[in-house]
Amino acid sequence: MSLHMEMEQRRRTLIVRLKGELDHHTADTVKTRMEEAILRGNVNHVVLNMKDLTFMDSSGLGVILGRYKQLSALGGKMVVCDVNPAVYRLFELSGLFKILKFEENERLALSSLEVVS
Amino acid sequence: MSARNFMTLSFASRSENESFARVAVAAFVSQLDPTLEELTDIKTVVSEAVTNAIIHGYEGRTDGVVTVRAEIVDDNVFITVEDQGAGIEDIELARQPLYTSKPELERSGMGFTIMENFMDRVEIESELGRGTTVRLVKRIESKKALYN
Q: I need a labelling partner for B45 at 20 to 30 A (CA). Which of A9, A33, B54, B132 fits?
């Protein structure tokens, strides 16, 4: 039981697909790899696809909030998509649902960014 | 006949054991026939409490011991997560939503808030230099509904 991360860059948008479990143990890798990809790829926006994320706890909230702050400082946006009800409840509890943008799927997330960029 | 069952797990304070602990407790609780949501709640709170023990109790040291106990009494689940680590200086402050003593680690400060929201009861006992015990209680509704 661990986390698999797939990253794809389309122009200045980074798509991150998380598969598996995002907890304290796996959050460090997510942090490091996303941080690097955002800086190295001169990334503006991030789409975080949570379709295959089977578990998340508050450590996941921490790392997502961290990347949101990193992107905001660079003037970028973050869109989260395909969030299951259990994970969405954590976003609600923490108030993160107020500052992040949510879309049903990756396609909608990407098109929502094309409008803003 | 009172249905009572229990189990105890002790493991090293290593982050890779977080998933082991939550999966083991969830498997134990499965005998009450919980809903998927109840099971996710339990996995999440065990993950929160064990993560706290590792990050805050043992401050990342991997030679500490975390003990998780789960007990089923009728349709109630009692879970205890215990460490012999640093202890919590101010429990009320630690329970505040979004408060974290380690902001440099990108912690969300939501651990106790999640526990309070997902469980029926949360009790924290802590002594500086001695360790922390978190007691969590949740009633599993689904089985009862099935019988009625």
A: A33
